[in-house]
Amino acid sequence: MLVKSKMNAAELGALWTTYHKKTMILRILEHFISKSEDQKAKDLMSGLWEKLHPKVIEITKMLENDGAVPPIGFSKEDVTLDAPKLYENGFDIMFCRILKEISMGMYVLHMTISYREDIVMLYKQLTDITQSYYNQFTQYLLEKDLLPRPNYTNMPKSVEYITDKAYMKGTNLFGHKRSINTVEFGLLYHSIEANISGMQLLRGFAQCAKDEEVKKYFTKGQELSKEILKETTEILLQNNIQPPSTPGGTVTNSTNAPFSEKLMMYCTYLLGGFSLGAQGFNSAFVLRNDMIAKTGVFAKDVFEYTMEGAKLMMSKGWLEEPPEMDL
Length: 327
Prior knowledge:
Layout: H1 9-35, H2 39-65, E1 87-88, H3 91-112, H4 117-143, H5 166-169, H6 182-208, H7 212-238, E2 250-251, H8 261-285, H9 289-316
Antiparallel strand pairs: 1-2
Helix pairs in contact: 1-2, 1-3, 2-4, 3-4, 3-6, 6-7, 6-8, 7-9, 8-9
């Protein structure tokens, strides 16, 4: 039997954030499920919905049992199920895969600041669900030829140590850049894969947004993704590496929004935070100074864009205030 102590402030904040993200994902899944023409994709997304919905109810009860008012998050009012399909060609599963990738990172963080056993178990169960569906989404995309595998390389035959600091310069006296290593390649590849889907997502959001400020914001984000893609792809080409040709899905010509602008803005805000985390991770493992500099520029641009989105949500009354520290 789990012994329940009083919920602490960090746990309250974690559950509050999880509630927002989970209710957003449920609304996105509901639209994708209603429009899916592929039975396997529909079954996958329906299975995920059926596992996440009870967890939202569980979080609600946890908060209420400790005397906290649950956040509003996102409700049926934030999704229009009879709106035409906004994305085609596997984008639904591609985007669900990205959402599960974000979830994995957030659950690790939330578990490390949770101490009450039932809350820790909640995040363990959510992690198990997420890892399972992330793999299922990945295998689906591979089977449908919608997700290319990263490039192959020759396997190392010996172990070497870096002894020359010029390794970090990326260039020698003649201006020749050293080849990127496999760790750097993996980070670049992930960036390209994520930004292709992000660019398509924001293109669709911009196409159906009615508020002019919101529409301009989504268009700006689409252009930012394009710039990151351009710069990252150029690094691979300079190293004679063929960039991935991930389709990224297709945006239809529909101008009817399947989601509320509040939900689309929050989703973009969430992706911005995920991108910032990725840039920070990249800067720790990339060892070529020119690439580190680019990562810094990307992080600055993404940070400014994300903060602009937060201010825009505040001006529209769409950004819920997290519970304050009331000691």
